[in-house]
Design a protein that fits this description.
Blueprint (H helix, E strand, L loop, with lengths): L1 H8 L9 H13 L3 H13 L7 H13 L3 H13 L7 H22 L9 H5 L5 H13 L3 H13 L8 H12 L4 H13 L7 H13 L3 H4 L15
Helix pairs in contact: 1-2, 2-3, 3-4, 4-5, 5-6, 8-9, 9-10, 10-11, 11-12
Amino acid sequence: HTLGMAYLFGNSSSVEVNHTRAFEIFQENANGGYPLSQWMLGFQYAAAVGVDSNQPRALVHLTFAALAGVHEAQMAIGFRHLHGVTVPHACESALSYYRRAADAVAAAADLLGSPMVERRRLTDRTGQNPDPGDYISYYTMNADRGDLVAMLKLGQVYLHGAYGQGQNYNLALRYFRRAAQQNDPHANGFLGMMYASGLGVEQNNETAKEYLEKSAKAGSATGQTHPPNLLPTAEGSAR
């Protein structure tokens, strides 16, 4: 698997990028039941990296990896269910996969003594459910301090309209752009989606593709589940 990753992204010291060779290695490992290679095969099929795009196969490999506990794959499947990408739109299924990924990350952070464990729900701090405005104030305060998690949260709040906030694409763009300036792959993925759909910006496939490819290559589920080859064409169909 490590050699496959080296061929996929390149190793400046010894290995040049070879997407086809990476696919072959991941395929061999996946046949032996290796979950991480299942995840990477799903990514390559979804984003058409070294292989023709095949969304049904991407879904199969991502699902096997997610069920085996690969939290990146769980995020990818959760995103697909949340937005109805090659699967029926199902918020409960999305929540189930997102929760598994979140629990795994939280457990790892707790084990390592990471400061991430301090980012608790507001209900954990107060013992009661706060007003939605409290959530917005909390995340805004942290975003102003440069917290990437808060920037991404606010971007999604304003993109979808949550916590009592109406959709505000301008604010969503502001927070995603701030996060993207710190090279956050998830922010790049959301920006790519917004440019692809013309949300708050003039629709631009080239800009969308640039952001989505940057996100996908960094391993973000956001970029992987909205591959550039599925961007709408001028005639309105997918490429």
